[in-house]
Design a protein that fits this description.
Immunoglobulin-like, 9 strands, 195 residues, 31% strand, 5-stranded mixed β-sheet, alpha+beta
Amino acid sequence: MEGGINSGFGKASLSIALSCFLTFLGNTPAKSQQALPEGQLRIDVQRGADAVHPAHERSGIEIIIAVYDEKDRPVPAATMAFSAPESGPGARFVNGSATAEASTDEQGIAHVAGLRGNSVAGQYKIHIVASFGGKTGSTDLSQTNEKAPLVTAKRVSILGAICAAVVIPLVALRPRTQPKATISTATPSGPVGPP
């Protein structure tokens, strides 16, 4: 067997065979490592994926997105558009709207703070689109709004204040009567024991 293992197979053929074997085993490269078609941007969600929004939350979550080109280089100054559902389970951005825009910094990172779930419980997706120099990319970000609990600290406080507002005046307005002492003048009947 002259020429060793590479005789009859070139390096490219060996690479193709290995790739087919790995695909057969189910070991394909991660989505973030796969080559993008020309003119496409890749969006990598670094924070905010699969977030759960507690009911009546006061502060929202932060979404951090990284944008890369087809050669896996960061894309600075890319325009990012975020949109949540207008009805049903959804969210509002810090501007009070279901949509927001941001730009990536010099490392290709965009931050959107203050995303808060609305009062409708359930799952939904936030659609994200990145664009720069005629190139685009998009992804969806899964989110969940929790159902509001029946009893909350705020509701207990309000109920306590209402009860106090009703009970205190009633107690203050009740008539103050002095207890009457009664003296019995009845004499015992029947045998009476020694004193």
